[in-house]
Amino acid sequence: MISVVLLGAGNVATHLFKGFDKTSEVSVIQWYNRSIHAIKPYANSVDITDDLNDLKDADIYILAVSDDVISEVSKNLPFDDKLVVHTSGSVSVYDLDMKHKRGVLYPLQSFSKSAEMDFANVPICIETIDKKSYPLLKKIAVSLGSPTKRINSDQRRVLHLAAVFVNNFTNQLYRIGHEITESEGAEFDLLKPLILETAKKIQEMSPFKAQTGPAKRNDKKTIKKHLKQLENEQHKAIYELLTDSIKATHGRKKL
Amino acid sequence: MISVVLLGAGNVATHLFKGFDKTSEVSVIQWYNRSIHAIKPYANSVDITDDLNDLKDADIYILAVSDDVISEVSKNLPFDDKLVVHTSGSVSVYDLDMKHKRGVLYPLQSFSKSAEMDFANVPICIETIDKKSYPLLKKIAVSLGSPTKRINSDQRRVLHLAAVFVNNFTNQLYRIGHEITESEGAEFDLLKPLILETAKKIQEMSPFKAQTGPAKRNDKKTIKKHLKQLENEQHKAIYELLTDSIKATHGRKKL
Ligand SMILES: NC(=O)c1ccc[n+]([C@@H]2O[C@H](COP(=O)([O-])OP(=O)(O)OC[C@H]3O[C@@H](n4cnc5c(N)ncnc54)[C@H](OP(=O)(O)O)[C@@H]3O)[C@@H](O)[C@H]2O)c1
Ligand SMILES: NC(=O)c1ccc[n+]([C@@H]2O[C@H](COP(=O)([O-])OP(=O)(O)OC[C@H]3O[C@@H](n4cnc5c(N)ncnc54)[C@H](OP(=O)(O)O)[C@@H]3O)[C@@H](O)[C@H]2O)c1
């Protein structure tokens, strides 16, 4: 049985706790959070604390705390030479205090406390400094039912950056779709099946092959009509830039 | 039983044929295509023709042909005062020759001939010039199992434009994610569950509420790091513009 001390009680830590609770290979023996009230509801099923000096001995310490405080919290851990990992996509593994064996368990998914999450849909990217820590981290990720992938720092950095494009920026395109349709009293809901289909399509097909539409076809008449329709200057700029980007990808000239 | 003559044999017409084939309320009594070879495989189950002068008498004629030729094909139909509709998101209903009763059945989805399509996931937007044609068009759409919505020309125009944002432009963000990850030998596949989750999330929640990430948080440090990481100038411009757009939506100042 692998013993885990979990630190933090936000989106990620909460899902990790629930995930580990279902496995037989991993046991969360203690849960720490700066403010105890967030973990009070779990006091019956796990030892809770708000004092770093109270931390128990465990195989691994998972720091699922805000990016900005990872370094500080790792420094304040009152022991050394134990395996300590964080869960961030963008923080360096070297931000963890060097007194520890250091690693990263980066869950490549968007968590929110309130929404259910099946770890089968959460690829966990594993990074370690020393090779010896890898098998344990892999076991932990696999116990959750997650696909796992060993990566290096550069790869984690680009994955986090790419995640901003496919998650935050994509969501903003949905938002613009919402604004455009509402401006004429059309229902955004009508676009939802298309949005889902667009995401499903590239599960099997490359985004290159999946592309369609006026930019790919270089359909100047439709592009011109669309630009005329757009009243918001920012929306217009986004239309132009992404149309150019599609053209660049598919070997067409610029707008 | 509603009798339909289907014109065209591309992505949309092929799916419409297969969809109608499963209903008991609608019968495709004839299928026309300019080049007969595309519909030859269906000759056993439906009357096929490549001659507009051979068209049978039907309750409705559905023109699922390229946008550019809708006007011309409708003009060449050798009859008048029949219900004739097209399936385009961007072509005016008035592009259909005025000798007909005119309407539009716009299926708001991305079709490709090869991929299966369940019409339950295809909202059909209905537009008519005279009100009397509406009930028949509604019946036809419902027979396919599609959600339906009556819309006007302005609404169809914005829906088509919004579809470009949530389908073509979103797909290009996936493509950029692909390029960025590959540049470091990271696997694009790791992003696929996040892509699906992002699309699923807004089925229940508004894109406004669903937004997260550095732009929404106005996390200047991460934004700066990301911009430094991006080598492609176009990717950088897209990052800046969409970050500004998220800030505008969420009441933050520009980059
Ligand atoms: N959310 C996601 O979708 C996601 C996905 C992948 C990776 N991550 C990474 O996972 C980590 C946690 O993210 P999250 O979304 O779970 O964050 P979160 O919901 O904002 O929770 C942050 C946690 O950090 C704690 N914390 C903040 N300042 C602290 C301090 N000075 N000392 C001790 N604890 C402190 C908070 O404690 P209080 O409860 O006392 O405020 C809270 O438990 C981050 O590194 C993030 O980059 C997040
Ligand atoms: N594909 C989508 O995702 C989608 C979604 C919603 C709406 N629509 C709309 O549905 C309509 C059809 O789109 P599609 O994707 O099915 O097109 P498509 O696959 O390109 O097929 C075009 C069809 O038009 C015919 N055609 C072209 N020029 C013609 C001419 N001069 N005379 C007679 N027929 C001609 C073609 O005949 P040949 O076989 O002889 O070339 C072919 O059957 C368009 O108005 C489009 O905007 C498409």
From TrEMBL, chains A, B:
Occurrences of domain Pyrroline-5-carboxylate reductase catalytic N-terminal (ranges): 4-87
Organism: Algibacter marinivivus
Pfam families: DUF2520, F420_oxidored
Matches recorded under InterPro entries: 6-PGluconate_DH-like_C_sf, DUF2520, NAD(P)-bd_dom_sf, P5C_Rdtase_cat_N, TM1727-like_C_sf
Name of protein: DUF2520 domain-containing protein
Domain DUF2520 span(s) in chain numbering: 122-245
